[in-house]
Amino acid sequence: MPKEPPRPKRDSIDDEVDALLKQLPGADPSLKGDPEEPAARGVAASSGTPPGDAGAAASVRPEPSRRDRVFVWIRVGLGAIIGTAITQWPYLHECGFSLLGFLAALLVIVAAGVWASVWAWKTRMATAHLLALAVTAWGLALVTNQVLSRTGYARARAAWRCPDPTSGLALRQRGGTIGRPDGTRLRYRDIGSGSVSLIAAGAMVLTDFLRPLMEQQRVVLYDPRHRGASRPVSDTAGVGIEGEVDDLAAVRQHFAAVDFAVLGWSHTGATVARFAALRPDIVTRVVLIAPIPPRRASYRVDWSRGTGQDSLGLELLRIMRMRGEDRTNPTDFCRRYWEIAVLGPWMGDAAALERSTMDPCRFENEQPKRREASLARLFDAFGNWDWTSNVGDFAGPVLVIHGTADPFPIEGAAEWIQSFPNARLLSIDGAGHIPWLEQPDVVYGAIEKFLGGEWPEGAVGR
User: Fold this and answer.
1) Which residues, in sequence order, are bridge partners of residue 179?
2) Which of 86, 111, 239, 283 is an S-S bond match for 276, by CB 3.0 to 4.6 Å?
3) Distance between CA 415 and CA 126 in Å, rounded?
4) Is the pTM of this model over 0.85?
5) Do 291 and 426 meet the contact criterion of CB atoms below 8 Å apart?
């Protein structure tokens, strides 16, 4: 048998190169490497303990399969979708359990980003890894935005807990909802003991205002169906004066109240006035604070009174809306909106806002777009109103309180005095549309005296 010729001696570097090349997809099968060491190299590569210089070969990872890449992109896409969707969060999240729920959702974004970035790193997908890190950073930024404002490191301070507008009152307090036949839920607050002596429309706005009165009597406050914490069954359900009056009647029936006074502010002044005219047998007194005029013909807004509109502030709100801040940070935008577009221009002394403890932006109904649309529908439903001939059936005492700096001219309040047979007007010099914040002592004292059975000093009749 002929003797096999001796094999040419191969350099160890040649063997190493061939071994590496053989691991590439579609490698040339003629690449054999060192025939005496393939098994040892395979074992070394799989065990992580390469003999000699085989460590470089062992460090080469196989290319990720198509299935691996698809699942990595699914993870990255999931995180990106959640991060984008959170900007449309439909629920309030400024305090309490709603805030905790929102923070939990933000942490889901962070977790999704980390999860995706780890898998992208393992499969060496650079683009997917960078996108996953961006999702993680976005989630952390949203969390930081919520946390810093509650730890003293932000311009606008926020609270972890929802404030109780009646905190500090050592009174029996109850809250709940009253269901209406169409599915609407009216939110109410019942404070004090004994029989109901006052029903006021506007719990969200009036609770902190009526605090001194609650110490002496039982007061029921409720939010109209499209305002505050009440939940209408639809945007158009029950819109109009008759629907508002029916809701007040439902609140009265729920508490079986008789011989009680009613109080309304702004447009709810018309609500309580109409209700009193329909039920003069159970209503004893009526208080109207800065009411809209009883006739559409007298309805106008004079911005030359009071502080007037803040043109720079309104431009700021417009820019914030263009940037989408009303969607990305709705609570902060809402608070600026109320300060610049609602409360500030309606006051004679804007500095008096510091006395307020109310936070309308806690409620979905008071978000800017929803509030504006709700009021537009309401006044459209009022039509060409004229209630001057509908309230004369109430012969009891009626007190109208109106500020001289109210953008609703005081002449409209004087028309209410002419419409009731027994009414008087108390004008508050220099006060705007929220007189209880601007001159609380005058307003509190006047209402307390009136509900006690006397006309306040300075109230004049027709």
Assistant:
1) 185
2) 283
3) 73
4) no
5) no
Whether the CB-CB separation of 443 and 435 falls below 8 Å is answered with yes
The Cα 239–Cα 244 span in angstroms is 7
CA distance 16 to 321: 64
- Rounded to 5, what percent of the chain is helix, strand, coil? 50, 10, 40
Classify each residue of 362-378 as buried b or exposed e, where b means 16 or more C-beta atoms within 10 Å of its C-beta: bbebbbbebbeebeeeb
The label of the residue with tokens 């507008």 reads 165
The answer to whether position 366 is within a domain reads no
Asked if residue 35 belongs to a domain, the reply is yes
* pLDDT of the residue at 4: 55
Q: Determine contact, residues 274/390, Cβ cutoff 8 Å.
A: yes
Residues 296 and 382 grouped into a single domain: yes
Residues in the chain: 462
Largest CA distance in the chain: 139
Q: Are residues 44 and 74 in the same domain?
A: no
Task: Tell me the H-state helices in 259-409.
Answer: 267-278, 311-322, 325-328, 330-337, 368-382
Distances in whole angstroms, Cα of residue 386 to Cα of each of 157, 291, 297, 343: 45, 14, 8, 27
Whether residues 27 and 72 share a domain: the answer is no
Are 270 and 132 in a shared domain? no
Domain count, the chain: 3
Query: Measuring CA to CA, which residue among 247, 289, 312 is closest to residue 426?
Result: 289
The CB-based long-range contact list for 337-344 (8 Å cut-off, 24+ gap) reads: 337/368, 338/366, 339/313, 340/310, 340/313, 340/314, 340/316, 341/313, 341/314, 341/317, 341/368, 343/434, 344/307, 344/310, 344/313
Binned at pLDDT 50, 70 and 90, residue 267 comes out as very high
Torsion over CA of 72, 78, 84 and 88, rounded to 10 degrees?
180
pLDDT in tens, 379-396: 999 999 999 988 989 999
What CATH code is carried by the domain that includes residue 384? Answer: 3.40.50.1820
Residue 165 lies in a domain: no
Strand partners, 175: 189
- Within a domain: residue 446? yes
Range of the domain at 71: 66-148
